Amino acid sequence: MTAFTVLMAFQRETEALAQVMGRLEWDQQTVMPPGAARQRAEEMAALESVLHARRSDPRLADWIAGAAPPDAAGARALALIGREHARATRIPLRLAAETARVTSLAQGVWAEARAGDDVGRFLPVLAEVVALKREAAAALADGAEGQDARYDALLDEYEPGATAAGLAAMFAELRPRLVALRARILGVGRTPPALAGRFPAEAQLRLAREVAGVFGYDFGRGRIDLAVHPFSSGSGSDVRITTRIDEADPLGCLYSTIHETGHAAYEQAIDTAHALTPLGRGVSMGVHESQSRLYENQIGRSRAFASWLHGAMARSFGDAGAAGPEALYAAANRVVPGFVRTEADEVHYNLHILMRFDLERDLVAGRLETGDLEAAWNDRFAADFGVAVDRPAHGLLQDVHWSAGVFGYFPTYTLGNLYAACLWQALAADLPEAEAMVAAGRLGPVTGWLRERLQRHGGLAPPRETIARACGFAPAAEPLLAYLEAKFGALYRL
Ligand code: ZN
């Protein structure tokens, strides 16, 4: 057995255990009985200790040094294992286990605080999470200086190679044109009506399953369940998604499902040869979001798809709740300065992200403390959206991320939007008949283009390169701004 074979066999077990951890998290968000929270926190901490010990195992360094990868894929896998090993060795075992325990509990506290609109209930545990993440960030930054060195170290887990400075420059390019577009739209003073009617939960879930199938989700290797916060979880042959239902608003369930289907389709499409290796999962959260946002927006919220969806909704509910496809298209693209990120239209969505990015950067750097966070959130929201937050569940308590210790993740959503627009531009040039196919509910060739160009490669190339290879050009902000200005310019006759 060569060092490379030994290393890959060891890594395979680590990857398998990481999948088990993911399934425990799925269980916690879907079917776990509430009384199990404390024991589950201990279970997660125990499993995290095992994973951390494996990732920081000193033998890894020897195997990596002695390994001769047989090909480019092997070399990339080796580099990714080395990267993960370097990060793991900087985090003391105690910190890894404690973070797993505290964040597992904090997510339960967050859910209760959100349900009761009680910020005071959430802040103490959030302060614990922030303290642990600051400690982790300092350890991962490994002595690097600079005002964002620690944030960059956290960001690197979700978007390898990205930096806060680079993202801030990109966001600065987006912001003025997004704000100007929003002002022109709101200046029209005419918001298309939302859907009218009641849409029974069972029919919504049936339609969600049908739509996921249309987008290529493989139910033989996946399932859909309900959760407070929709997510997708798992890689390889077990990739699950969740959704949520509001009987007054079927579009929430539909677009959450399409979004998560985009994440899941990416995982399900990765070449099986990469399964349970570091190449066998999406390469970064930004690239992941490019898939989910493209499925949700460029396809799901298009005029073409609305014409298919209107028929499907009329079949499911008896009445689609909109007079025709055009009214459904307008309802699915209403621009309103709402409070909740996950319900935001495409114009406001990125403004939500830019705000969270600035707040969490300040939290990690110690420029902002959790006691001042709600005021900072509310002030910034009023400045950016022109309305005052009406209740904490619509403000600071709306997102699960910080309770889960996930700092450095939010900017990947906007990065994903930017990548999605680049991919759509390249796809539309390659497949001029894409729109007609989408209108017919025949998405195979469109999702097939993404599978072939991007999804099946998994972690083979670094994130930006993955996008550049698929598009044939380097990712940039212009395609996203042009897409939004053209789409909403026509919709609102600007
Ligand atoms: Zn997503």
CATH class bucket of the largest domain:
Mainly Alpha
What is the averaged pLDDT score? 96
- Give the tally of structural domains: 2
As for the CATH topology of the largest domain, it is Neurolysin, domain 3
Order of helix and strand elements from N to C terminus: HHHHHHHHHEEEHHHHHHHHHHH
Q: Strand order, main sheet: write it out.
A: 1-3-2
- Total DSSP helices: 20
Strand content: under 5%
Shape: globular
Structural category is mainly alpha
Straight-line distance between termini: 67 Å
Number of strands: 3
**Bound compounds, please?**
zinc ion
Radius of gyration: 22 Å
Query: Which CATH architecture of the largest domain would you pick?
Result: Orthogonal Bundle
Residue share in helix:
55-70%
What are the low-pLDDT stretches, counting only 5+ consecutive residues below 50? none
Main sheet overview: 3 strands, mixed
